[in-house]
Design brief:
Helix content: 25-40%
Bound molecules: 5-O-phosphono-beta-D-ribofuranosylamine
CATH superfamily: Formyl transferase, N-terminal domain
Structural class: alpha/beta
Shape: globular
CATH architecture: 3-Layer(aba) Sandwich
Number of helices: 6
Order of helices and strands: EHEHEHEHEHEEHE
CATH class: Alpha Beta
Number of strands: 8
Radius of gyration: 16 Å
Distance between the termini: 26 Å
Length: 204
């Protein structure tokens, strides 16, 4: 796996996960060769996140800040997360299946250089259970969105979207699986542009 050291001038990217990290894996795999960015940290709020083990096995620095240690003290959790991030000196943060809501104070530290992927065609279906909601609404299409993170949940400037058809007989799981394939195409493509300073919207 390529490291930040192999391309010193590359933009430094930290990726935040909470689980398997399939989007993190796609992002890491994309940052090779002439890609203008390199991964410098994979961090998680869950020490047991399988994506952390994968990242460590691929030679990437990792950090686990267990949000349960901090109870309801969200600022204390975010202070620990920020300290771990700052040690890696990231220029760009990619939230990838990161399931903690970040306070406006934390967002302000990274606004303008923090991305997220959301499994719906925003502004439709911010929040959770996006695929079930699309099915219940009878939507003919669904998809995913990469957006800049702002203090308002799932509402920042859209940097890219990818669409999939909703098919007869779809369940939330079959639709999620179809969308996930597009997430793994969209997020790397948007990051490649964003790391070059190109914020034009990309529709796949
Ligand atoms: C994906 O649907 C992503 O859009 C959402 O979390 C799900 C799992 O992501 N944010 P990953 O496999 O952990 O990257």
């Amino acid at each position: 796996m390529t490291q930040a050291a192999d391309r010193p001038q590359a933009r430094r990217v930290a990726i935040l996960i909470s689980g398997g990290g399939s989007n993190m894996k796609a992002l890491v795999a994309s940052m090779t060769g002439d890609h203008p960015a390199r991964p410098v940290l994979v961090a998680s709020n869950d020490p047991a996140a399988p994506g952390l083990a994968w990242a460590a096995a691929h030679g990437l620095p990792t950090a686990a800040i267990d949000h349960r240690r901090f109870g309801q003290d969200r600022p204390a959790f975010e202070a620990a997360l920020h300290a771990a991030l700052e040690a890696a000196r990231p220029e760009i943060l990619c939230l990838a299946g990161f399931m903690r809501i970040l306070t406006p104070d934390f967002v302000r530290r990274y606004q303008g250089r923090m991305l997220n992927i959301h499994p719906s065609l925003l502004p439709r279906y911010p929040g959770l259970h996006t695929h079930q909601r699309a099915l219940e609404a009878g939507d003919a299409e669904a998809g995913c969105t990469v957006h800049e993170v702002t203090a308002e949940l799932d509402a920042g400037p859209i940097l890219g979207q990818a669409r999939v058809p909703v098919l007869p007989g779809d369940t939330a799981d079959t639709l999620a699986a179809r969308v996930l394939i597009q997430e793994h195409r969209l997020y790397p493509a948007v990051l490649r542009r964003f790391a070059r300073g190109d914020r034009r919207r990309l529709d796949l």
